[in-house]
Amino acid sequence: MLDTCMGDILKQGVERVILGCTKIPFALYKTNSPHAHPGMDAIRALAADCIQ
């Protein structure tokens, strides 16, 4: 279902989707979803910003 929703959103021209829930990015990467890359993992972005 998540893949379908993200696929529909991306078809409308959206470039990135903020994945605010910690489990959504994990599920997309774990299932090798084609939508994992356009998703923006908020936790990973926060962690990267904190260590800079």
Description:
The chain is mostly helical. The chain is 52% helix and 12% strand. The protein contains 3 helices and 2 strands. Helix 2 links the parallel strand 1 and strand 2. It starts with a helix and ends with a helix.
- State the end-to-end CA separation: 35 Å
Structural class, judged by helices and strands? Answer: mainly alpha
Separate helix tally: 3
**Sheet with most strands:** 2 strands, parallel
Q: Give the tally of β-strands.
A: 2
Rg to the nearest angstrom?
11 Å
Record the strand order, biggest sheet. 1-2
Helix content: 40-55%
Strand fraction equals: 5-15%
Shape: globular
Uncertain segments are none
Please state the average pLDDT score: 77
H/E series:
HEHEH
Question: How is this structure best summarized?
Answer:
This protein is 52% helix and 12% strand.
Topology:
Blueprint: H1 2-11, E1 17-19, H2 23-30, E2 39-41, H3 42-50
Parallel strand pairs: 1-2
Main features:
mainly alpha; two-stranded parallel ribbon; 3 helices; 2 strands
